[in-house]
Amino acid sequence: NMSFEDMDKIVTQGKELGTYLYFMTGGEPTVRKNDILKLAEKHNDCMFGLFSNSTLIDEELCKKIVELGNITFLLSIEGTPETNDGRRGDGHYAAVMKAMDLLKQYGIIFGTSICYTSKNIETVTSDEFIDLIIENGCRYALYFHYMPVGNDADVSLLPSVSQRKYIYKRVREIR
Fold this sequence. Notes:
The protein has helices at 4-16, 33-42, 59-68, 81-88, 92-105, 121-124, 127-135, 161-174; strands at 21-24, 47-52, 71-76, 110-116, 140-145. By secondary structure, the chain is an alpha/beta fold. The protein has a five-stranded parallel beta sheet, with helices on one face.
């Protein structure tokens, strides 16, 4: 949990080095929306990408983002309601769909952050899923493979070698 002053210092120093794109991860970055909005307003020559679980994206935030014009979201989604909520918790899929609707309605460019696992890889690379996110306004997608963290992490979710080879080829087909 950096202070606003520390975030501002990082961006200020980054700009001196020629960096104008900043990604924020979490937890959930939008719990700090006031500081992030203040940072984006102060550094209006920079772009800020927020990896978000979508739960705090509302109309008020969308209106402010339209006004600022330099914030984009990477919404976490992992397939169908079943595959998504199975990992992220009940109601997460609905929150992502609601956020997509709002962002699309307000003309805010956004993308997705897709964590693929041994269990959802076919779902998140299917034509149906790709069509769904595009129809809902998604402009770009980033795929990340599941990385177990901590002593109790589920290693069965790690993609196999053949699944990692598959996604290498499939992402290029999607592009």
